[in-house]
Design a protein that fits this description.
alpha+beta, Helix Hairpins, Heat Shock Protein 90, 5-stranded antiparallel sheet, 5-stranded mixed sheet, 9 helices, binds adenosine-5'-diphosphate
Length: about 425
């Protein structure tokens, strides 16, 4: 898939999912509001019935204006002119709540306004069977509410539903289910996007690697091919010197090819097993000076220079000489390769907490921020379109990381595109 298509798919998919989630939240909230309104209506109706029944029971036919008032915290105040008997009230409340499908626990309290006292209060477990069972193992639940004392003249009672929220949520079954399904869809979509992006990066790396391979192998192969053409000329036997020189070219190029294949194969194997190296104490300063000596000519040929600031007082490190040499060599080689002008390279060392830090910095092309997280990945090269002016397989930094970690060290970089790069290697110094 083209990257533009992938970007569009990701963008539209994400927008669609955010839209879906917003709609879902809106509907869930609406449904909850509706359920709550329905609940309040049912409570009002049930209590109204109770009021009428209590009044009829007491033989009172006067109509009380607005006898039921809803207070915050799921509480209802019901005014009644009659003396209220707890047993009768409880039975009426239970019956009416059941008839209005309010199958849940409730608490009530009866007030005598003359003495300003709660004359009776109880917590009613709606499910009688459950209540009976619970009473055998746990004591009956105490009232959880301290009912407010209202300034009223008549008798009144209060009802509260402590489990109202749970009751409403239980009624939202289908909405909970659809929300779970939606969350699962979002999770799967995010995972699919993650896999697509990962696959795309892998396929880019693969294409890049194949392009690099082709470029790296093309030059020696065409040299071999030209040399064989010369060797196939019939009169070449009369010129043994020429024959020798072309045969040597073929041998050199074949060796170069062999080394390259070997390098790729070795690196491909490297990650699979945990690297264990045998180390010995060695002066890192000497190792750096050695690598600089080997690459000095290459730097001078490009008109550049190299500065050394080997300031670490303690520079003896436990290391595997060949691997550490390669690490320094790879970093220096990159500093020279990835520089458009005359390279100015600085290598410095300093002692840090329980170790030594080696910094290799250059004034090269730098590494863009978006490439930095992948820079130590195997075969990764900063994308340059189809330009392959700097040769490589994207294996050097991977080797640097694996080998530094095998030395129990760490590697990090600081880079700005167009300004230059610094690689920092920190190695532990173990005290005897
Ligand atoms: P190679 O150089 O063979 O491509 P490396 O693993 O050494 O492989 O480097 C990976 C990529 O990191 C390079 O292709 C290059 O794009 C980038 N890179 C490495 N070192 C530097 C540097 N000093 N300056 C700029 N870019 C660098």
């Amino acid at each position: 898939m083209k990257s533009r298509t992938i970007r569009l798919v990701v963008m539209f998919g994400t927008a669609a999912l955010i839209g879906l989630l917003a709609i879902q939240i809106y509907w869930v909230k609406n449904a909850l509001d509706l359920k709550e309104r329905e609940f309040n209506n049912n409570v009002q109706m049930a209590l109204m019935k109770v009021v009428n029944q209590v009044m009829t029971f007491g033989g009172d036919t006067t109509q009380i204006v607005e006898p039921i008032k809803q207070l915050p915290d799921n509480m209802y105040v019901v005014t009644i002119n009659e003396k209220i008997y707890p047993n009768i009230l409880e039975a009426l409340l239970k019956r009416q709540f059941e008839m209005h499908h309010l199958d849940m626990d409730f608490e009530y309290g009866i007030y005598d306004c003359n003495t300003n006292n709660v004359i009776y209060g109880n917590y009613v477990n709606f499910d009688e069977l459950k209540a009976a069972f619970q009473q055998t193992i746990t004591p009956k639940k105490a009232m959880s509410t301290v009912f407010p004392r209202l300034n009223k003249d008549e008798y009144y009672f209060l009802v509260r539903f402590p489990t109202k929220k749970t009751f409403l949520y239980q009624q939202m079954g289908i909405w909970v289910f659809s929300t779970i399904v939606l969350v699962l869809v979002v999770a799967f979509f995010s995972y699919a996007i993650f896999v697509i992006l990962k696959q795309r990066r892998l396929s880019e790396i693969q294409t890049d690697f194949i392009n690099n391979m082709t470029h790296e192998f093309k030059t020696p192969l065409s040299t071999i091919s030209i040399s064989t053409d010369v060797l196939l000329q019939p009169n070449i036997v009369n010129n043994p010197e020429r024959l020798m020189s072309y045969a040597t070219i073929i041998q050199d190029e074949a060796n170069r090819l062999k080394n390259q294949v070997e390098r790729v194969l070795q690196m491909a194997k490297l990650n699979k097993e945990k690297i264990k190296i045998n180390t010995e104490p060695y002066d890192i300063d000497l190792l750096i000076k050695d690598a600089v000596e080997k690459l000095k000519l290459m730097i001078y040929n490009k008109g550049g220079k190299i500065n050394l600031h080997l300031d670490a007082a303690e520079s003896i490190v436990q290391l595997y000489k060949l691997h550490m040499q390669n690490i320094i060599y790879n970093l220096l080689d990159n500093a020279i390769k990835y520089c458009d002008d005359e390279p100015v390279i600085t290598i410095s060392t300093q002692n840090v907490k329980r170790g030594i830090e080696i910094a290799v910095s250059d004034n090269g092309i730098g590494i863009p921020v978006e490439s930095q997280p992948f820079i130590f990945d195997k075969f990764y090269r900063v994308p340059t379109g189809n330009v392959h002016d700097v040769k490589g397989f994207g294996l050097g930094l991977n080797y640097v990381k694996i080998m530094t970690e095998a030395h129990k060290g760490t590697v990090r970089l600081k880079s700005e595109a167009g300004k230059g790069t610094t690689f920092f290697i920190t190695l532990p110094i173990e005290k005897e």
